[in-house]
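Quick illustration, no need to memorize.
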Amino acid sequence: MREARRGQARDRTELGQQMAGRLFGTDGVRGQANKWPMTADVALQLAAAAGRYFRTDKQDHRVVIGKDTRLSGYMLENALTAGFTSTGMNVFLLGPVPTPAIGYLTRSLRADVGVMISASHNPAEDNGIKFFGPDGFKLSDEAEDAIERLMAEGVPPAQPQNIGRAKRYEDARGRYVEYAKATLPRRTRLDGLRVVLDCANGAAYRTAPAVLWELGAEVIPMGVEPNGFNINEDCGSTHPEQAARRVREARADLGVCLDGDADRVILIDETGRVADGDQIMGLIAARWKEAGILAGDSLVATVMSNLGLERYLEGRGIGLERTAVGDRYVVERMQQGGFNLGGEQSGHIVMTDHSTTGDGLLAALQFLSAMVETGRSASDLSNVFQPVPQKLINVRYADGKAPLDTDPVQEAIAQGEKALGKGGRLLIRKSGTEPLIRVMGEAEDMQLLDRVLNSIEDEVRAAS
């Protein structure tokens, strides 16, 4: 018995040493599968801590767990189930469903907590764990910190008679399909529209085609044959090239590209031109403003959104609230200000009248609805403003390095800001999900922008 207690103490000490930094990033816990922190033992301890954190005085404690199509999802799903049931939580296993379905079903099933196992747009070897509270929204920093403290302290297991149960919940996909269709007016039909739909071999490979087909669209599916390894591989919102070619070949009216967990979307018009989240948000914001349903007459977006979007909105009497990068920060600002539309340039579109997090499919439905109601083409609707030239460079850095803290990098940034003046802007930041420094700039003078960004990139690489 003493040896077992000493072993548990050693485990907690080792975990505490590994967690010297914050375990949670900007979108849950993420990393390479079977390496810390994406290991079965960490997932088990994380679930036990979350289970302890969300336990209340009621008798029936529920957890819903969904996942995307990565092979490692099986391992993490089982580990999370063990952790939650060890603290007396009953687990509903939903299988592959989009991330926004977890937010919806957490509330619908009156669960205490929802979990999505996904690394979103990352490659198949990565995975992640995202938590949703009983209100269907992602957790605050304070809640995540409290869960980390419980992990470090160690969570006592429930008594044998109080161990939770786990079962497959077979109706999850069907409920989400009906929920998604209900976000459009009942009379809305997509008859006559030919849509190329790229599901990135990810979580929406069954739900998204079903929704569009049931609404009457002719669906040309892509990325609907997951094998555990091909999620996001040359497909989906991060690689829309093949879908763009298919749109042109099939003479489709629209291309819809989701990412691995379907919380973001990129659209492709009938000519094969790609429209990012800024263009989609601009269209929806203008339509909602005209209809009188845009709360606060404002859109919430991140510092990454294009200056052209800001100018477009200003010309229509719509405010732009900027936040740090990450849809959770967008949602927090929306909740604080009572806004109902927000998102990111990358394609996270959050409509809190319908969803608690980014939902790529719902955003695509809003766009398709606009096509039906106006009779206008995708190329007309998806080009609502002229973007200011923008360039993004990603620089990978080694573990233990902090390139942004070095004097040469700071000096290069200061010189770049001086050179651009009021005619442009810089945004240099560390990614919250990968070991990358993102070097982004906007300016009307593209040659000047190239010189500025290349100078900063050189210093960042030297310090990486």
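The two ends are 48 Å apart (CA to CA).
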